[in-house]
């Protein structure tokens, strides 16, 4: 399977190039970077810390989608919307790991998925996807005597908050309670907040250093506290999941899929 990487010079882009090069049955279709970006014209293997692969980073995403069987996208929300339109046009499988995508940007992505298979997930790791299922189960079992807060910490270069994974965990906790996250969330607390409303799901965001991604869901009641935690110690877990998603989606009908579909959870 020929897999392309948009944003191939980014933290995840480099990891994806290494993962595709190391996966039997996969070849690199090429890679793109932002128009005017400093990595353009550089070998994508060299950018990823490998031997040169003889393929340079280009800015023409349409050419990459025409060449590839699947494209993996860990870029920015604006870029992911454009890439989804290109995937629909060329009927290429698309895997989206980008986070910070709001409801307005999500609409054209869902529309593109009526033309081609798209797998979208804020976290491609097996561990976090298992955690989502556990959080739903615990949310259902404990009910709203237990206050739910979600704490996440990431590296200083992360640009969106709360993380896509934290919001996903909140969504599954809310689903366990039979409510919509948007009806109960408190994304930031500041100043004289008053007492905690029953049923609220809160978020706390920490940023610093090189932390790859830590998430904890706290269920706190009178007399006890349950905490479910995932800590990433490398980005390979995300790249492995994304390549697995591309291979899985290759023979699927158009549609918007998640890692839960890919992993059969
Ligand atoms: N789902 C998951 O499992 C995971 C998701 N993520 C998410 O992935 C995204 C990227 O993260 P990360 O790799 O750390 O970020 P980086 O900023 O390191 O990488 C993003 C790359 O995409 C490039 N880019 C931006 N716009 C375009 C464009 N239009 N065409 C081609 N390339 C473009 C950027 O270039 P430039 O720097 O020049 O703008 C950069 O090289 C984030 O949203 C993050 O939250 C991260 C890890 C795991
Ligand atoms: O930006 C990151 O680095 C990560 N982003 C994703 C998110 O927003 O949840 C996944 C992972 O936590 C790393």
Automatic annotation (TrEMBL):
(S)-2,3,4,5-tetrahydrodipicolinate binds at residues 155, 164-165. Belongs to the DapB family. Homotetramer. The active site is at 154 (proton donor/acceptor), 158 (proton donor). This is 4-hydroxy-tetrahydrodipicolinate reductase. Catalyzes the conversion of 4-hydroxy-tetrahydrodipicolinate (HTPA) to tetrahydrodipicolinate. Residues 127-263 form the Dihydrodipicolinate reductase C-terminal domain. The gene is dapB. The lineage of its organism: Bacteria, Pseudomonadati, Pseudomonadota, Alphaproteobacteria, Rhodospirillales.
């Amino acid at each position: 399977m020929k897999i392309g990487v948009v944003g191939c010079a980014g933290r995840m882009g480099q990891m994806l190039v290494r993962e595709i090069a190391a996966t039997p049955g996969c070849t690199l279709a090429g890679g793109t970077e932002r128009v005017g970006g400093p990595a353009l014209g550089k070998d994508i293997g060299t950018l990823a810390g490998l031997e040169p692969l003889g393929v340079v980073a280009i800015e023409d995403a349409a050419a990459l989608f025409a060449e590839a069987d699947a494209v993996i996208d860990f870029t920015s929300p604006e870029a992911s919307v454009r890439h989804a339109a290109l995937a629909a046009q060329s009927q290429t499988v698309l895997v989206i790991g980008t986070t910070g995508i709001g409801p307005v940007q999500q609409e054209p992505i869902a529309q593109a998925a009526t033309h081609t298979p798209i797998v979208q997930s804020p976290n491609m790791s097996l561990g976090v996807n298992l955690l989502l299922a556990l959080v739903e189960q615990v949310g259902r079992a404990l009910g709203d005597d237990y206050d739910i807060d979600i704490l996440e910490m990431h590296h200083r270069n992360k640009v969106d908050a709360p993380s896509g994974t934290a919001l996903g965990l909140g969504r599954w906790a809310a689903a366990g309670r039979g409510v919509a996250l948007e009806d109960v969330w408190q994304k930031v607390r500041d100043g004289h907040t008053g007492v905690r409303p029953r049923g609220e799901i809160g978020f706390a965001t920490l940023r610093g250093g090189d932390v790859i991604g830590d998430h904890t869901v706290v269920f706190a009641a009178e007399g006890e506290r349950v905490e479910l935690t995932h800590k990433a110690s490398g980005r390979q877990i995300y790249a492995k999941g994304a390549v697995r998603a591309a291979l899985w989606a290759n023979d699927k009908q158009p549609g918007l899929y998640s890692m839960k579909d890919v992993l059969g959870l």
